[in-house]
Design brief:
The chain is mainly α and 154 residues long. It has one domain (14-135). Helix content is 86%, strand content 0%. It is elongated.
């Protein structure tokens, strides 16, 4: 499993646009599920509709951010990847807090959905933060290497 994740991190550090596309698609799927499906079938999930609305708005903002990065960003990937990785972790902390606060209202299906969402998003954040670190290290390595090589006189 660790080798698979490392291969994924290596691949995405070579193609960071793919990471933004993945994040934006996941965010729009989350927003759709929260705002449409869970509100429509709220009795099966139990989370208050206002909470679902707020969480879906956050997911829409994440989708807009990641889509804009995918479409317009040409370089300097690291700070943008790091930002969405941290934002995703903050979203997970918020969701855990809401799970605790509204636990008496939640059904088993609702609790299960949010726990699975948290695991998936935390996994995505782990990959995003490691990709950002790998890209930054790769950008710094040639500079360090060139500064340590002896200078030749021509």
């Amino acid at each position: 499993m660790n080798k698979i994740i490392n291969n994924l991190i290596n691949h995405l550090s070579e193609k960071p646009k793919t990471l933004f596309l993945t994040d934006s698609l996941g965010a729009i799927l989350t927003a759709f599920f929260l705002f449409v499906i869970m509100r429509l079938f709220n009795e099966y999930f139990g989370m208050p509709k206002t909470v679902l609305t707020y969480l879906s708005v956050i997911a829409i903002w994440f989708c807009i951010y990641s889509s804009a990065c995918f479409l317009f960003l040409k370089g300097r990937w690291t700070p943008f990847i790091r930002l969405i990785g941290i934002a995703n972790l903050v979203y997970c902390v918020l969701t855990v807090g809401l799970l605790i606060k509204h636990y008496p209202l939640l059904t088993i299906i609702g609790t299960t959905y949010f726990l699975i969402e948290i695991v998936i998003i935390c996994g995505l954040s782990y990959v995003e933060l490691n990709v950002a670190t790998k890209i930054k290290r790769r950008a710094v390595s040639p500079v360090l290497l060139s500064s340590t090589l002896p200078k030749t006189i021509s």
